[in-house]
Design goal:
By secondary structure, this protein is an alpha+beta fold. The chain is built from 10 helices and 13 strands. The strands form 3 sheets. The protein has a 5-stranded antiparallel beta sheet with strand order 2-1-5-4-3. The two termini are about 70 Å apart.
Length: about 400
């Protein structure tokens, strides 16, 4: 069939009213070109969906000249008549987006106005497609490179953790011996040592004890970062668990005449967690609160039940943490401007380890400044039990579901 005959056949088929209606609906609602209906003065009467998206708002009632700053000049009707003579490339405003260049044809409708038809230039579409293809290829290459670098970093991090763990383990034995021997000499020397010698032994004992705590924290941190946070989960009653921890820490707090108060303890059902590790978290928060509290003050401990979680809070009346330092609190070895009280030490790892333990329980940990001065450290544990209902308190499971 010759082209002219094919065109005639197509025209005849399109003359069917049902086909015309479907074609008209497609042009207005789905086709990727722009259709505007203008009155004789160039005001927009209506627009298809694609044109409305381009201009970023309902274009109806707007003068055509406002939407085509790169084309219009002088009288709108004169400009429209000029555009109707031949298809042109014009720039249109696109709402909040960058201006867009369109290939435009303007069809006069006599006294009824104008029909604006526009589409992206073929060359621009090809260019955009080529650019998109290039960007996709570049993104794929970058993703592969990023995956490779991440794998290398993970390997290096694992090697670092292995080295730290081995070094801490090897150093612990001789330092433990120094601590034990200095303690033995202090306890059994009687009056054989002078005051200066006793003071030196006290310094040796205190320093070796600090080093032992640091090495233990390094070993714990290395194991956690290597993915070896093995949780021994069991159902426990909160109040007895918490009161035992307070009794133990009260012995240390008595040295500074500080009282530990359980100020609130909501009724909480048996909660599922690793008792030793959550005890480690609470011991760290309570010891920090005692460390930074003035003598004779009190430290408040609270347990509050929420809709889906239980929140533990330890509050002190110390100096608090300046706002500019609060983002450093849970980072290993981070230094903040608050000075340690005299004769107090810190490894700089306790809060970092506490955070990792709480996250391993699917909880969160955070800091809140206390009104009137002081600090509140809070952490939450999920209320929903991770142990099947058939298990009774005291039965154990490993890992979180």
């Amino acid at each position: 069939m010759r082209p002219s005959s094919a065109r005639q056949e197509l025209s005849m088929r399109l003359a069917d009213s049902g086909v015309r209606e479907e074609l008209f609906r497609f042009c207005l609602e789905e086709a990727s070109f722009y259709v505007l209906l203008l009155d004789s003065q160039g005001t927009v009467l209506d627009a298809n969906r694609y044109a409305a998206q381009l201009f970023g708002e309902d274009p109806r009632g707007r003068p055509f000249s406002e939407m085509t700053p790169g084309f219009s000049h002088g009288d709108d009707r004169t400009a429209l008549e000029e555009l109707a003579r031949a298809p042109q490339m014009i720039t249109v405003s696109c709402g909040e987006h960058l201006p867009q260049t369109l290939q435009v044809r303007l069809v006069p409708l006599g006294d009824k106005g104008w029909l604006f038809l526009g589409e992206l230039p073929v060359e621009e579409l090809v260019g955009l497609q080529q650019t998109l293809t290039s960007l996709n290829a570049e993104a794929s290459n970058l993703n592969r490179e990023l995956y490779k670098k991440n794998a290398e970093l993970k390997k290096l991090n694992d090697l670092k953790n292995q080295f730290v763990g081995m070094a801490a383990h090897d150093l612990r034995n001789p330092i433990s011996a120094i601590f034990s021997l200095s303690s033995f000499l202090l306890d059994n020397s009687g009056e054989a040592l002078s005051d200066d010698q006793s003071e030196l032994l006290d310094m040796i004992k205190a320093s070796s004890n600090f080093m032992l705590r640091l090495l233990d924290d390094l070993l714990t941190l290395a194991r956690i970062e290597m993915g070896k946070l093995n949780l021994d989960i069991e159902l426990l009653e909160i109040q007895p668990f918490l009161r035992k921890i307070i009794r133990v820490n009260q012995i240390l707090a008595d040295r500074k005449q500080i009282t530990l108060h359980l100020v609130a303890c909501d009724e909480v059902p048996p909660l599922a967690f690793d008792a030793l590790k959550i005890e480690q978290v609470l011991n760290n928060l309570i010891s920090n609160a005692v460390k930074f509290s003035p003598s004779g003050e009190s430290v408040d401990i609270a347990v509050l039940r929420g809709a889906e979680q239980v929140v533990f809070t330890v509050s002190d009346r110390g100096p608090g943490v300046p706002e500019e330092d609060q983002h450093k609190l849970f980072k290993a070895f981070a230094k903040i401007s608050v000075k340690l009280p005299e004769n107090e030490t810190s490894t700089g790892l306790g809060l970092s380890i506490a955070q990792k333990i709480v996250l391993g329980h699917l909880g969160t940990i955070w800091y809140e400044p206390r009104p009137g001065g002081g600090s509140s450290f809070c952490f939450s544990l999920p209320l929903k039990s991770v142990i099947p209902p058939k298990n009774s308190p005291g039965q154990k499971t490993h890992g979180l579901e």
